Each structure stands twice: as C-alpha cells, then as structure tokens.
Amino acid sequence: MTVPAIFLLLRWAAMRRLGGFTGDVAGAQVELVEVALLLVLASRSVA
Which of 2, 8, 29, 42 has a Cα at 20 to 30 A from 20? Predict the structure, then answer.
C-alpha cells in the first residue's frame, strides 16, 4: 500500500467511526507514518 492509500483508509475509518476527521486523528496518522518509515528504514539497514 502507498502512503496516500493508507491516509485515505484511515480518514475513511475516522469519518465513519468518529463522524469527522479531528486533529487527534491527524496526529495519530503522523505517528503511524513515522513508525512505518522507521520500520522500513530499519529493515533496509539489516538486510
């Protein structure tokens, strides 16, 4: 999955479950993207 696809999926889930896209949801998305990026970079340095 690409980053835009993940963003849209999480946005859709927030809209459906919470009834909107809040700053808390945006902050959580930033954290998830950061963790994913760190995992990708760590896996590339090990391999």
Answer: 2
pTM of this prediction exceeds 0.70: no
CA 41 – CA 28 distance, rounded (Å) = 20
User: Mind listing the pLDDT tens digit for each residue in 1-47?
Assistant: 677 888 888 889 999 999 988 899 889 888 988 888 888 889 988 76
Alpha helices in the chain (DSSP H): 3-18, 23-46
Cα 17 from chain centre: 16
Q: How many residues does the chain have?
A: 47
Q: In this structure, which amino acid lies at residue 26?
A: A
Structure tokens at 17: 């479950």
How many Cβ atoms are within 10 Å of 11's Cβ, its own excluded? 14
